[in-house]
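Can't attach files on this board, so I'm pasting raw text. These are the components:
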Amino acid sequence: MKLHIKYDMNICCKVVLQEQLDKLEMPYTITGLGEVEFKEIIASDKYHALELCLKKYGFEIIENPKNVFTQKIKDAIVEMVYLEESLPSTNISDFLANKLNRSYGHLANTFSEVTYTSIQNFIIIQKIERVKQEIIDGNDTLTQISFKLNFSSLAHLSTEFKKITGLTPTAFQRIITKRKEKELNAK
Amino acid sequence: MNQDVLHILLADDDDDDRLFFRDAIEDVKVKTILTIVNDGEELMQYLNKPDTRLPNLLFLDLNMPRKNGIECLKEIRANSKLKDISVAIYSTSALEKDVEDTLVYGANIYIKKPNDFELLKIIIDKVITINWQYHTSGLNRENFILNIQ
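---
Top answer:
Structure tokens for the assembled complex are below.
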């Protein structure tokens, strides 16, 4: 019997984080995405224990301020690309600059220093990731997906998709379908 | 942070190609550690050793003696311990069918071997930088597909 499960990463991560933090038995508040505030300083043995627990789930405590900042930029971009049904049509640089309260130039410099790529490139990669997920989910046609994600047309989506992946969206679809068939046949 | 370095493994039976690759990787901004094996048998032995440091990214030549790239690819994708490795297939073929077949077998990246060293540098830089984004941003590696012609 096959079950198809959809999950909400945000809720999942928040619950996992809370469960690990509760183990510390110290009062805390989750103040934002990936941000936790403790009234007191955490003793180093507890801190290391927490790091180990978090590591199991692929969580990491970010210590370098530039990395913290870059993660905030990534989170803002992911929020923009995934959580809104339709992407905002306002200028992306303004959106990020406002959200993070810094000039876009500053954001861009820190981001490329840490990730070796540009904000623009990262945004397109995330958008195409979402396109791939929508293709796999199979609920919308390619045309519907292109409008949902604010591409000017299906042709525009196909061009961007091909630029990032080297394949057309239909070729991608075909490959994923054949992979699934292979898996089924293997069982 | 374990995110600091990308471990790369190259499997190629050609001396010159191995040398070119090592040179091409020098200028890439992402910090890398490179290990090289000379053919398919050596590759599978390396990957299956119990305390081997597994690579994040494997460049796999399609045409190798003893065990070719496709056989290695099938074995790798059948082994759940190796599921976090991104596999880049290297080939002289540019046929759409070959590209799609290797991607269907579970390769993430398909690269047509360039004749030009400068082009090789650009391609390797692109592959490593994109793979780095997958490595550091929690993107779904199963959907990671890249075709470079």
